[in-house]
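Entry:
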Amino acid sequence: MNNRLLYLDRLRVFLTFLLLFHHTAIAYGASGSWIYIDAEQGTTLTNILLSLFTAINQAFFMGLFFFLSGYFVPRSYERKGNVKFLKDRFIRLGIPLLFYLFIIGPLIEYFLYVEKSMSLGEFYSKEILTFHQFFIGPLWFVEALLIFNLIYALYKKLVRKEWKPQPFPTNRKLVITAFSLGAVAFFVRLIYPVGNGILGLQFGYFPSYILLFYVGIVSYRNNWLKNITADTEKIWKWITFIAIPIFPIGLILTGALNGTLMVNGGWNIQAILYALWEPFVCIGMCILLISLFKQKYNQMSLFFKWLADNSFTVYILHPPIIVGGSLLLHTLDILPFGKFVIVSILSLVLTFILAYLVRLIPGTRRVLG
């Protein structure tokens, strides 16, 4: 990879780490949905801290994944052409998606919850092959990427026009964008509250995902990553630091500690606050992390190259490792936060090792990179 882009690989590794910690946090009391919950959600200090951690993550980290994915789409399309690009997308995204849908997801569900009530063959014939149950897990991201890439290829095939140069957005435009995204997300969540959607896609989060994928494409076309000024970084650093505590303070003032929690959607102040808060944290964190990694981490050691090479496979394989670690510690008399730390570290190490071993299997690198 061109040296100027090494920091994006390291940023992707960082986001992969964050993904594993995020899902482990939900297993130990943070708000959110996960395959196996070992510690119930509540209002303990651990619940509050882990929920704040996942709320901040959720505001930006998947959106930044979409941005990075969008950034590399134009170059791939131009190099391969329409047919080869689509073939590559179906191989790189479609095969992992099908593998999770029919192997990883169902097996986790079966051995966790179904084993005592029916055989594995019955489970597949009655639930999986009939699509009565659908276990896409975190591969919803791969599903969405496949859809976005197909739309991009279709657009390029049907609309043959040159991209017009666009300057990096002013801070005023970024603030307007944040408010607009929040408003759109709020209205989407009136129909599809957070946690609801179709085929594993939580539409309440998709306004920012769609925009960031598009912004990734535009950033590549206009070399925006080189055009983030020091003033923009400084302004959005302050916006982010001011914005982050507003959400938890707002929840406390509106009764969250007394059990009133309605952030997922609806005509209420908490849902409005959450929808408007997220885009400001998202834009700020994206700018700050891209700038930080560009300035400080634009080099690649052999170890970080190894991490980067295996990060996509880690994304696919991490759910059974986290679930297995949680089950292993389930009966131990350890506080939930302690289990969170132990399972996070164990899962991180074991999943990267497993990903490396899987990629040694002949033919897998054509799919997994």
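The chain has eleven helices and two strands.
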